[in-house]
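User: Some background: our group keeps a shared notebook of sequences we're curious about, and every so often someone picks one and asks for a predicted structure to add to the entry. Today it's my turn. The entry only has the sequence so far, pasted here. Could you supply the structure so I can complete it?
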Amino acid sequence: MRHVLPMLAAVLLAVCTASHALPDESADPSSADAILDRADAIKIADFQTFGRLVDDLAKRDAKLASLQHWRLRFLQGWRYTWIGDYENGRKALEEVADNATDSVLRFRATATLINLLGVGHRYQEAFVRLGQLQDLMPSIRDRKARFQGLGEASQLLSSAGQFEQAEAYAREMMDNPPPGQTNCIGAQHLLRAQREANRLKTLDPMYIRAIEVCDATGNDVFADTMRADIAAFQLGQGKAAEAVKLLTESRDGLRTLNYPALLTEYDATLAQAYLKLGDLANARRFGLSAVAGSIKGEFTDPRRMGYWVLYEVERRLGNAQAALNYHEEYMQADKAYLNDVSARSLAFQIVDQQLLARKAEVDALNKQNEILRLTGALDRKEVETGRLYIVVLLASLGAIGWLLLWLRRSQLRFMKLARRDGLTGICNREHFVDQAQRVLAYGARSDRGACLILFDLDHFKAVNDTYGHAVGDEVLKRAVDVCRRALHACDVFGRLGGEEFAVLLPDCSPAQARARAEQLRLSIAATSATQARPNLMATASFGIASTTQCGFELHRLLVVADAALYRAKRAGRNCVFMGDTGDIPDSPYLTEARG
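Assistant: Of course. Here's the predicted structure to add to the notebook entry:
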């Protein structure tokens, strides 16, 4: 269940800052410092009293000392963020993070600001603030503030696929919890980072003990979040019944916490588990709940998986129109969700490259200043020695210039990698869709027809199950290499997911498309699936759709071609079928594992 940064970050913000400052019982309760301490301590437990204290202090702001003013401004920013006024919250927190004289207060404001920017999908700004947080971290001795910062950093890095650093921060939280905290929160961050990185092979009993600690200390949300991760892991291991048991035992308690984001994650996992168990009624029930409980306007993983389960339920029940409607919702949610995942990863890479480039620029300026200093000293030194220094420094500048050029090329390489499938090197799904829509738009303007070919490898699941995923990957790469040799430079070739591929043939008639598809089919069937196993053969089934019948809308071409592909599977596989628009209601596009 990827992309739960807004949900979990909000919880960490609440838990880690709630106990940061404890009021001094011996202090004058009417003094500004005592009121600030009390407000900071009760802002979660008694939000109304907290608000009144902040309002009272705001009336005395002009008389407050500098540090008191910045503490008040931080609490105002926190309050705005808590009630959902993100714009005013951001302004207040930025003021504190950029101007406060106290480093701990700047650190806390920066950590809270990272949370707010992540919730608002302003990922590039969030990673810039993360860099500032990491620069401050070595100087922070306040364990509670550092604990909060480590949690925010771990979550944001995990959301961008930087799992090693995210795990390192989570382990530090477990090893050094501040007074009043346990290893509960750090264990939750570590579990999620390991699961999202696919490094969780077996369930460490440490996580079960951490759940017990969370339950015992009242950290119910973190306990339930770990249960959600464990259930998702069990589901991936084929233990759907165990996942259902784990989630149903704690779901009623979760409902009383009034935490809809985590509840939708539970419901999406339950919907998938019941679908695997063949319980269509409960699969539909929890799929609808996952969709209904998702944040409006947000395309999260629970929303995406909810639509997928609802599509599968209706398809299995034979409700073609309802299945098609849910499938369209799933496609929209899936694309938006993947775009958000890519945005987080790309934002991290951009900011990381910018930081390296900025450091190189600073080094270059330092070198230039050194050149000026040495130039002024030439009158007091021998000319030959001065020239030698200048040559050395110019060589350094040349090296820095080369580094800047290398960094620029690295940025371009990262952008290219974001458009390519990591296994096969061809277009990934998002880039294929963009390229295909561009080609189709040109074809529509120039009245040149085009054809779409969908194909997938027959019995591919059996290959994975029999020989393992490493051999399966070799089969996929071998098939792609064979197809590349048969395709033209203007053809758009992409991997849609798993063993399913798509080819858009511009300026192509249906007859030509059929001939091209037959050529691809014969090429795949005539070549051994891997070099290491010459006796292992692979075949593929093909479906074709033409703009002559379907028009130039990519989604319609995909659905018609997929219906034809499905008919090729039912006809015995290793064959080519031309799409017919009458097949659209039965199309299982991108959801059924055909094999």
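Suggested note for the entry: Residues 174 and 183 are 4 Å apart (CA to CA). Confidence is low (pLDDT under 50) at residues 1-27, 585-593.
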